[in-house]
Amino acid sequence: MDNPVIIRDISWLSFNHRVLQEAKDERLPLFERIKFLAIYSSNLDEFFRVRMANHRNLLRVGKKTKKELDITPKQTVRTIQRIVNRQQEEFSRIFENKIVPELTRHGIFLKRRLDLDEEEKTWVESYFHDKMLPYVQPVLLVKDKVRPFLNNAQLYLTILMREKQNGKTAYAVVKIPSDHLPRFIELPSGDEKTHNLIMLDDIVRHSISWMFPGYDIEDTFSVKLTRDAELYIDDEFSGDLLAKIKNSLNRRHVGPASRFVYDRTMPADLLDYLKDTFELENLDVLAEGRYHNNSEFFGFPDFGMTHLKNPPQPPLPYAALEEAEDFWAAIRKRDHLLHVPYQSYESVVRFFEVAAEDPAVTHIKIVQYRVARRSRIMKALMRAVNAGKKVHVFIEVKARFDEEANLNWGEKLEQAGVHVNYSFPGVKVHSKLAYVRRLEEGEPRIYNYLATGNFHEDTAKVYSDFGIFTADTRLTNEVAHVFNFLENVEAPPEDFKHLMVGQFNLRSGLEKLIKFEISEAKAGREARMTLKMNSLQDEAMIALLYKASRAGVKINLIIRGICCLVPGRKGFSENIHGISIVDRYLEHARVFHFHHAGEEKLYLSSADFMTRNLSHRIETTFPVYDPTIKKEIIKFMDIQLRDNVKARLLSDQQGNSYYKGGKNEVRSQVATYEWFLAHLEG
After folding, report:
1. What's the number of domains the chain is made of?
2. Is residue 2 part of a domain?
């Protein structure tokens, strides 16, 4: 009997629906719900640029998505479209029936062009001529003529018109310049407690007649084209990989269509005309509401109404390192756990800043997957070079949508004298490692920071991640081997005994730990594991977890996003309980906890149980040896397993029903912050 498996992208859509549920949750402050509308839309845009584009390419060449499921790309695309259509209708209901009335109750009015009074019309017309006219780019669509190019993810209005002289139907397209101007414009109001807003789209709608004076305007409908974002590199294994990536980035904005969204009230004749004009197929088009590019809700004005936002939850200081007189002595004394964003990221930044200024430090090394736009860490590395230290940075330039930023940082670092290594052909480097070598009494000592998240000062404010500072030679010696491999592409002189590293022993090491629990269960002894990650998709791992469940191993899964495994299925996974937590912070940490005959083995990791992570990336999974830290992490995991406010049950029904276990209400992210408040001594 084949193992039950949920299609990866169907599971991802279920995750994004959990994001949309947050916008519907009336327990959340209003502006937070609006933010979740933006997150949902931003996620969906990326999904269509990457995943849906892949399915469309498979469809063009006639390949199957999964042999064992015997599902064709066309069936997959249609299933995705059906789910997205349903979610988009729900999005519109949430916005129109929940968000807009709630805004009105707080004195914020979203006006459409037909709602404007004469004074507002005059103001809108002036705004259009003064601020918008150079950007709108009106184009009359003429059959069999050169069609206009639609920019990726850019908003447009399509216009249904009639010529005044002969009454013939005509069509046009006009750009909505949200790439130059704010999407939400405040109209003048004499009342300080009232805020009237109009969307940029409706200012263009109001102004259409001036752009086409020879026509009667019948109606307007918004559209947006999303383009394939894949970097098609002909051969990663020959030639200049960096140059190929740069060339591919230039082509990304002109890639083929992966989605054309349109106002669902658009007449069929106009939609057919647009499909013909822009050479679109039926599977390219998706109906949405009146407005698109809803990721721009990130810029929704708050008018200083802080009571409509989450209460402040500032990162708490980690005094043991932030206030340490001797930073290195504090790490030599014991390992230190950092849990962002509950705790401040300042200790990580200080790790590099102190190293840059310390005359005893000789080497600094780091792996960079995604880099903050303004990075104190990067500046510290450049200062370290000026101070005579040897600085090595491995930059992964294939980090999707961060390729250009990473290339720019690489160039800046090289200009400053930093030794920079870039991507390997065919493999991504996803480890989160930092290394400092320091001379102490004439002998070198290594200090590391190992983490589940990137060295990114901005995402550290909203991504929930773990990191450990250590001088434990069991770890530092093997981290040195990882960096030697990244710099010289030389295999380590001996097998990793403590770290599990992608391309070496990561998959086999995880399989060994799971198989040990299976053997314990079969022997009638206690066997259990808790696995927390972003995504679970690898079929071999899923099969092994099913085997563990059938053997009697108790398995808890905490998975934010994709989960292709089906928990609770009779004959396969009765012993597997799965939840997903979507809340204020993005759950990003990977934690693997095994009972291991009472030894309680605990690992933190940069890797999910995805085939790409386990087989096609350089990932690092590292053990937690400090008993106090181990207890803390297990405590945090227990809090998450008891979450009955923001936890959703994972199942093959993809229903995202809320977990309701336990007598007392537990919202894990709030409970975790409260735990830290009670332990401020660090």
Report:
1. 3
2. no
